[in-house]
Amino acid sequence: MSQDSQGAFLPVNPLDELARFFAGLTEHTFLQEFGLGETPVVDYLSGLLARFFSMKAIQRLHVKDRSNDGDELQAVLAVADELPEGMARGEVYRHAGDLALYWTGLFPEGLRRMGHRRGRDALLDYTVEGKRSYLMASHLEKTTEPGQAEVLRRLADDFELFALGLNKVRREWERLPADLG
Q: Assign residue 86 a region: left if phi > 0, alpha if psi is -120 to 50, beta otherwise?
């Protein structure tokens, strides 16, 4: 329980606690390892970790004719390519970039395993598609969300750096005692 300004005890929201955990860990890792203190980018990455903690967020797009893999990048890209210009298209490309960065950074071993199975994603280069998706999203959101567009452009330009950073974040949380991580 946490205490509000009047002294009353409020229940702790586990999702808020998780978001704070990822924010601290991401900020610390990127600052220590890379000297990167770009708050909007680091905030975006810690938000991505908190959002994707639940597989429902990864599978948030309902895509027709997709395999049982709710995170199939090819299906998300197909949806983005078919949508008319506009904000929704930018959101779908951003989600595709997030998926690519999440898997490339946090679970590269999962991508290697995916390459050995059949499916549309087996032939994709997640780094190339992630960079492309973030770049598309940054162009589509430039007029409506200029701050967000700058972050997405930075993610596109230095995708590999951020994937490496997320991998270091994962290694840090794996080193934490079980009762903390």
A: left
- Can you list the positions of beta strands (E) in the chain? 2-3, 9-10
Cα separation, 123 vs 112, whole angstroms: 11
Given a contact cutoff of 8 angstroms between Cβ atoms, the answer to whether 55 and 70 are in contact is yes
Identity of the amino acid at 161: L
Interacting residues of 96 by C-beta distance below 8 A, sequence separation 6+: 73, 76, 77, 80, 129, 130, 133
Cβ 93 vs Cβ 80: under 8 Å: yes
Non-local CB neighbours of 55 within 8 Å, separated by 6+ positions: 70, 71
pLDDT digits (tens, 9 = 90+) for 52-108: 886 555 555 544 444 444 457 878 888 887 877 765 888 899 999 999 999 999 988
pLDDT, tens digit (0-9, with 9 covering 90-100), for 13-42? 667 888 899 999 999 999 999 999 878 999
- pLDDT value at 170 more than 60: yes
